[in-house]
Amino acid sequence: MAAGPTNPTEYIQGHLSHFAKPLTDAGGFWTLHVDTVVMAVLIGVASFGFLWWVTRRVTSGVPSKVQAFVELALEFVNGQARGVYHGHSKLVGPLALTVFVFVVMMNAMDFLPIDITAKFTHLFADHWRPVPTADINTTFALALSVFALMIAFSIRAKGLGGWIHELLTSPFGKFPLLWPINLAMNIVEMVAKPLSHSLRLYGNIYAGEVIFLLLGMWAATGLAGTLFGGVLHLGWAIFHLLIVPLQAFIFMMLTAVYMSMAEEHH
């Protein structure tokens, strides 16, 4: 394993570096972030395994505290999704729930004490980032999945011909000379959706991770820095308790909004 960091720059770079494995000799784009994939799979199995375990123990009488909490969460997410989705698909409710649970649990990995976590992960990797949503590859993959579903919803609602017709005639009308402008406008709109969807989540979680690292480095300046940094760190952690579910909620709501917009006729 590599030696420990000798200055603040190496400390931050070390914690923000991935356990990466090139898939080709060229590397670059064809590089697998092993830590991101492993953590996402583990979080998914644990999260949805827990929900499956709860559903297997549902009772019709007085619910347990765990059952009551899960039922409230399900009703809240389903109600919010149905409030913005005006189509007829029964898939949107489960989709919104899946997105919310998966994203909020990945975001929550940001609460792990990074230096303590590193002591364990250094047993098998020089670098290991435990927060999958702090990796642009994760958020962009999620956004592209939503984008693909949005296209599928739109084609299902309008038909392939109707979808192509809308690309050519909206928003400026059916006059053939306007088709290139309409198509260009629609392409820009379509590209902007997954970009903004992914970058919003990534930017907030990545920034939160960096701030945790910077605040933690106050401890290296002495006793006063440790006390002051500890107060700031506690304040940021409390604020982050809001950021983690809020960003998952926004990602989930945008998913439902995009599904609803996809089925609208222009």
Can you describe this structure?
The protein has 266 residues and is mostly helical. It is 70% helix and 2% strand. Strands 1-2 form a two-stranded antiparallel sheet. A hairpin with an 8-residue loop joins strand 1 (20-22) and strand 2. The model has no long low-confidence stretch (mean pLDDT 88).
Largest sheet: 2 strands, antiparallel
Specify the oligomeric state: single chain
- Strand residue percentage: under 5%
Compressed to H and E, one letter per element, the order equals HEEHHHHHHH
- Per DSSP E runs of 2 or more residues, the count of β-strands stands at 2
Global morphology: globular
Q: In which range does the helix fraction lie?
A: over 70%
With strands numbered from the N-terminus, the spatial order across the biggest sheet is 1-2
The first-to-last residue Cα distance is 59 Å
- Structurally, how many domains make up the residues? 1
Indicate the radius of gyration in whole angstroms: 22 Å
Compute the number of helices. 8
Q: List low-confidence stretches.
A: none
The mean pLDDT is: 88
Helix/strand-derived category reads mainly alpha
